[in-house]
Write a structure and sequence with these properties.
Number of strands: 15
Helix content: 25-40%
Bound molecules: ligand T4K
Number of helices: 12
Shape: globular
CATH superfamily of the largest domain: Type I PLP-dependent aspartate aminotransferase-like (Major domain)
Oligomer: single chain
Order of helices and strands: HHEHEHEHEHEEEEEHEEHEEEHHHEH
Strand content: 5-15%
Distance between the termini: 35 Å
Radius of gyration: 21 Å
Length: 369
């Protein structure tokens, strides 16, 4: 094992705690298909997230894909290219057309002033991303969706545990999709969830995640298999006990980074949103080479030479992916392109030591001319 620092490191309970949690699985031999752990995690999460309903799934991507399918949409979906591949792929894999909206230069979330001009008679939904845990302009998105009769599905993969104006972040839009991947603030190894309000949405999601099976002899719909298994749910039950402490530790790292990097010419640190209780999911820094004296790539290389693995989340933009063969006009989202070319997310996880945070900042600042 080397002592490299990677962009993140999975949170894990003690081995003893996990073994204690999974012990009953050896008694029951019940490994998957909505067992006791699944039921317990679902109930715990509903409380913790402060939402009316939550459905557990195998991962955040299937949460997005099946939510779009459950909404029974056709046509165009307005979304952002400044995101992980999953967001755009979920749209395309549903036979829907992504229409890319530019991003706001402060929050990197969808620029709501650009949405209305992208609406056509084929638009059926808006799929914004609370990227890095930065909350979208929820009120304006609701207003536009209401005015044009559009569905709203939030990609909330980065926002587990956040609140906006005191309400759990899963309460907005028609549904919100969360990722519980190993790299996230809260993980179930692999996993995801959808928070929703409409019971019909819940019924449809359940069908889609379990082959459309309604009873031993009743298959009423064509569904996939996207059930969370008992070992993943058990990991979630353990991690949930510690998540507040984990978020507090992440916050301390973020504050340390800010002490070193705030106010440095040519560095733009992530926005702090007063009405959001943050989960400190990511620490993106946007480098202005002309002011700072070194480019994002030069800083990334310098960090790598010192065993520090920062990442370019989110470069390249999804609308430039090779799999789309130049189908989308990247010049239509100039702010997203500008940020994607300059952003670097620094390592961030609960157990990152203050000494390592200091060392990372020192390497970054040494690149400054
Ligand atoms: N929407 C958005 C906006 C998302 O960001 C994501 C996922 C999704 C939807 C889809 O959710 P999921 O279907 O994944 O639940 C990672 C994650 O795999 C992905 O979940 C995440 N977004 C994305 C932003 O990051 P990679 O390709 O960068 O992961 P990887 O394997 O390079 O890991 C990054 C670092 O994490 C490693 O350097 C070390 C650490 N790590 C990784 C793994 C796999 C661990 O500490 N433990 C681990 O088990 O995509």
């Amino acid at each position: 094992m080397d002592n490299k620092i990677l962009v993140t490191r999975s949170s894990m309970p003690s081995m003893e705690e996990y073994i204690e949690e999974i012990r009953s699985i050896w008694d029951s031999h019940w490994l998957t298909n909505m067992g006791e752990k699944h039921k317990a995690l679902q109930a715990e999460l509903q409380k913790y997230m402060g939402v009316p309903a939550v459905e557990l799934l195998t991962n955040g991507h299937m949460a997005l894909e099946l939510s779009l399918q459950a909404m029974n949409l056709q046509g165009e979906v307005i979304t952002t290219p400044f995101t992980f591949a999953s967001t755009t792929h979920a749209i395309v894999r549903n036979g829907l057309e992504p229409v890319f909206c530019d991003i706001d230069p402060e929050t990197y979330t969808m620029d709501v002033t650009q949405i209305e001009r992208l609406i056509t008679d084929r638009t059926c939904a808006i799929l914004p991303v609370h990227v890095y845990g930065n909350v979208c302009n929820i009120e304006e998105i609701e207003r536009i969706a209401h005015k044009y009769g559009l569905k709203v599905l939030y990609d909330a993969a980065h926002t587990f545990g956040e609140t906006y104006k005191g309400q759990g972040i899963g309460n907005f839009g028609d549904a919100s999709c969360f990722s519980f991947h190993a790299t996230k603030v809260f993980n179930t190894i692999e996993g995801g969830a959808v928070c929703y309000r409409d019971p019909d949405m819940g019924r449809r999601l359940y069908e889609l995640k379990n082959f459309g099976i309604h009873g031993p002899e009743a298959v009423d719909a064509v569904g996939a298999n996207a059930k969370m298994n008992e070992f993943c749910a058990a990991m979630g039950l353990c991690n949930l006990r510690h998540v507040d402490e984990e978020i507090a530790k992440r916050r301390a790292v973020v504050e340390r980074y800010r002490e070193h990097l705030e106010g440095v010419d040519g560095l733009r640190l992530n926005v702090q949103q007063p009405e959001v209780r943050s989960n400190y999911a990511y620490f993106p820094v946007v480098f202005d080479e002309n002011l700072f004296g070194a480019s994002r790539n030069e800083v990334m290389d310098a960090l790598a030479q010192n065993g520090v693995g920062a990442r370019k989340y989110f470069y390249p933009l999804t609308n430039t992916f090779e799999c789309f063969h130049g189908k989308y006009d990247v010049d239509a989202t100039p702010v997203a392109l500008h940020v994607a070319k300059r952003v670097l997310t620094l390592p961030l996880y609960a157990d990152l030591s203050m000494e390592d945070a200091d060392r990372i900042c020192k390497i970054v600042l040494e690149q400054k001319l």
